[in-house]
């Protein structure tokens, strides 16, 4: 009986999961964690600072306390828990993105994707995520910061999992604002880095000791790299466009050049949900090792190794043949 009760409660917790996600998103978007950085504050002080309705904000903060993000110090005064402190770091940038209405709408139409196999985002907005963000720079800035946040969570593990020091030049293709590249170059000062991404994205990057090039990876990528790095790029695309990206990289690379693909470890539960995120959002998929090997084989590469990291991503190593 007890087990049945706890299973039912666990199921209800999972069913209502989106309420938790949206509650944390709104807290992150309002900057609640930063406002509580120096200690607990009262709702009547926080409401004007966040331009919110005091009573509704109180209800939000109570819910955040119920899920362990805040603690209620005394009546109507809230502080950060250890979990809540995390919102001040990289996870906060992801939380600020995940509930954005335009992205949320795509998840609201998961059923459309499951019934038709189509990308829900495109079906709802009439454009893909990249076109949408190009037309909405404020959303692009939130997304790019979220990507930087995700990268910061795995950079150290990635840097430890592969000897990047053996390359003269690393080209980070679709490298966002360059968080991973900056971390790699910090560990390997002798390596030269080239950050490549869409012009509007690299415009927001700080050139921390690397060269910056804007363009489209469907047309060309910088030549002369000893290693081409694609982190969380191929999972955004279905097979045909993913192969096109890889062929463009292959065209820029000499035979024998290394290709490094960093993507989620498919065996982990988080990868299965990320796979749905790819289905409804950018219109891509998470892949198994065999599936990456097949993409490489179709693009002039062979898969020569894979190194899982402690951060839940794997470094797949290919060689241009
Ligand atoms: C999921 S993000 C990953 C960013 C970064 N590699 C990371 O791991 O944080 C995918 C990246 O692909 C870039 N991208 C999308 N379409 C592109 C294109 N046609 N040419 C170049 N970059 C593109 C996006 O701007 C974005 O930075």
Automatic annotation (TrEMBL):
One of its GO terms (molecular function) is O-methyltransferase activity. GO terms for biological process: methylation. Residues 12-85 form the O-methyltransferase dimerisation domain. Residues 107-302 form the O-methyltransferase C-terminal domain. Keywords: Methyltransferase, S-adenosyl-L-methionine, Transferase. Pfam families: Dimerisation, Methyltransf_2. The active site is at 235 (proton acceptor). Gene3D superfamilies: 1.10.287.1350, Vaccinia Virus protein VP39 (3.40.50.150), Winged helix-like DNA-binding domain superfamily/Winged helix DNA-binding domain (1.10.10.10). SUPFAM superfamilies: S-adenosyl-L-methionine-dependent methyltransferases, Winged helix' DNA-binding domain. PANTHER family: O-METHYLTRANSFERASE CICE (PTHR43712:SF2), PUTATIVE (AFU_ORTHOLOGUE AFUA_4G14580)-RELATED (PTHR43712). This is Hydroxyneurosporene-O-methyltransferase. It comes from Solirubrobacter pauli. The lineage of its organism: Bacteria, Bacillati, Actinomycetota, Thermoleophilia, Solirubrobacterales.
